[in-house]
Amino acid sequence: MLEVLHSLLFSTLDAAPALVFAALGAVLSERAGVVDVGVEGMMRAGAFCAAVAALAMPTPLAVVVGMGAGAGMAAIHGWLCIRWRSDQVVSGMALNLVALAGGTFLLESLFGPNGTPPITQLSRWDIPGLASVPVLGALSGHAAPTYLALLVPFVFQGLLTRTPLGLRLRAVGDKPHAVATLGLSVPALRWGAVVGGGLLAGLGGAVLSTAVLDRFEQHTPAGLGFMALAAMVFGRWTPVGAFLAALFFAFGNALRIGLASSAPHLMDLVPQGVLLALPYLMTLVLLGLQGQRSSAPAALGVPFEQESR
Amino acid sequence: MSLDIREGELLAVVGENGAGKSSLMNVLYGLYQPDAGEVVLDGQPVRLKSPRDAIARGIGMVHQHFMLVPTLSVAENVVLGREPTRRGVFDVERACEEVAATCQRFGFQLEPRARVDTLTVGSQQKVEIVKALHRGAQVLILDEPTAVLTPQEADELARVMRGLVAQGRTVVLISHKLDEVLGVSSRVAVMRRGRLVTEVRAQDTTAAALSSLMVGDSHPAAAQVSTQAHAPGAVVLDAKDLKAVGDNGRPALRGVSLTVHAGEIVGIAGVDGNGQRELAEVLTGLRALESGEGTLLGGGLGRLTPAEARRRGVGHVPEDRLRRAVVKDMTVEENVALGRHAQPPFAKGPWVDFAGRRERANALLRDYDVRPPDPELPLRALSGGNQQKVVVARELDANPKLLVVVQPTRGLDIGAVAQVHARLREARARGAGVLMVSLDLEEVLALSDRVYVFFEGRVTGTFTRDAFDERELGRRMTGAEAAHG
Hints:
The complex is a heterodimer.
Chain A: H1 2-31, H2 39-54, H3 59-83, H4 88-110, E1 124-125, E2 142-143, H5 144-162, H6 164-174, H7 176-181, H8 186-212, H9 224-234, H10 239-262, H11 266-269, H12 272-276, H13 278-290
Antiparallel strand pairs in A: 1-2
Helix pairs in contact in A: 1-5, 1-8, 1-9, 1-10, 2-3, 2-4, 2-8, 2-9, 3-4, 3-8, 5-6, 5-10, 9-10, 9-13, 10-13
Chain B: E1 10-14, H1 21-28, E2 39-41, E3 44-46, H2 51-56, E4 59-62, H3 74-79, E5 85-86, E6 89-90, H4 92-106, H5 121-134, E7 139-143, H6 151-166, E8 170-175, H7 178-184, E9 187-192, E10 195-201, H8 207-215, E11 235-245, E12 251-261, E13 265-269, H9 276-283, E14 291-296, E15 299-300, H10 306-312, E16 314-317, H11 321-324, H12 332-337, E17 347-348, E18 351-352, H13 354-367, H14 384-397, E19 402-406, H15 414-429, E20 433-437, H16 441-447, E21 450-455, E22 458-464, H17 470-477
Parallel strand pairs in B: 1-8, 1-9, 4-7, 7-8, 13-20, 13-21, 16-19, 19-20
Antiparallel strand pairs in B: 2-3, 5-6, 9-10, 11-12, 11-14, 14-15, 17-18, 21-22
Helix pairs in contact in B: 14-15
């Protein structure tokens, strides 16, 4: 029993960082008032660029390249939504489609349909003495992003609630005109949040291809970006809330894998597809249970125009 | 357009809607850039490229629509943009102390830790003023500050403004409430169509004189229609103990009982957000009733749908015109037909009757003096006042037995206001019951035969025309019980 728990926990922690970073990126962008449905596309760009870069450079550096790619995608989103005040949902979905098609095209023309060649994964860290402790030992043996993902949400929460910058970000998502009349720049704050969100989403994607897997696969990130959005909503747009929700979803994923491997006779009773859909079903059920989106930033998705009030 | 503002004075700028008052002040605050001309401050020409420049030069502005972040505290709103920090961390304690100090210095009573969305409108306005003063404003511009206040709150604001002037600050008050302007200001500047018409000392003029200056000679004077004897007919609405939930999930109506008769105008007075909007929505089938009963034109209120309400003869002039009354990208005549588009003269059988629709639309545009009177224009090409005339024309043309109107003249200029008011009186004379919700107490008192005062979803007072008492109404609007003894 302990062993099952250990392996469930271990694979949860292994899979969680991608989801956590993407969810945090979405929180950052949306708290400033810019809808972030393009997070899936930013993740895909990050995953692809990190995998390709890792063929030519050390993997940690490649992760940084992946973050840059996510930020680049986010910059397109920002340019359309902030500079030209286009519809944020449409822009985000366009980003997702471009990333889907562009990723597939580049993958097939450069490497063939099955994925990039294998790369060196991020190294895993063993915490001395911890590995042998039952259950808690699951904390040991992960790559750096896992530990980062356990830390960053709390730093981000502090930033949002306890610094002037955080105050301004919250204000710009709730009432941008108030911010503008105080002589602060609404576009600058939103640009910062969108690009920062892109960095985080790119990091989430890069983790997928450099730590969870050892290559970029055709379907990456396979809807994880949308689960990240669900985590953000379920976490009521707070960093720690989104973090906990992302952990929960990652646990659902681990449960699926765990069930499939530890209880093979279950596979005869339940069709494979149902198990595959388990994390997504959990997402749907939870969002349904939570209901209204009353905690969303008030000015979310509303382009800022000086003249309109 | 030229205007001098002198140090330490209380200058009022008056004019009709669209006269350019707000545009002028937005230029002074750096929100708009002038196409030509310059702003001279203390003898120096200055260029105000953004509110940041204006703030740096000691100009503060309180906007008509509050620029507060509702989810943040008073102190957070005030210090936003110049937050005190300790080692990079926002220092909430010091922010609260600073704000409390500013409040004390200027005699405001505000709790720095309170969340802004829990405050009354009057207090929110004080937060706005403190926000400007905290940034060292020497010149304070107030844009239509009393539009949403109760009489008591307006008095309080007048005291605040006089106090600021006494401390050497300069206050510019933009308003169209002339009595109020004369009560507090030392000098009055009158604007009309983007020009300064005249400047007068407040003590040398009267409200009537200012009014004719504002409107200009070409305009027919806003005639005071005498209120005819109140002779109500049959009951069109009889509601008992209505309860309904608001958008935020909290109870908005907590047991409201009221009646409306044919041939009377019933006013609903109250500060914004005390259930008036929800009442109008319940009566027009837009909001579900939680409990309570009533008869509305021969039917119940329980499962009223908008279609059923219309069928029984309920007309509706909603508060949010663009959301609920018109389709702004459709033409004026199409908007006139909305809701009755399947009936003559707008339709013949299953087909649109283009000729009949045009004829009716032309007649209504002429009757209601809609400018320009072109039925083919998209509605959005009309000014707000003319859009409202189209809505009123459409609703009254259907000959409603009960007309529910919410904020019928918000944002309209004097001419349009007078016209809408005349039409509402006309509907009453024709035998319709009119239920009017307005945040403008003057309007409620001017039109209503009876008034219900709303506070927190309950009726806290009822008044008939012969017993109107503005002070007492104001007290009831803030929840005060009836005076004892």
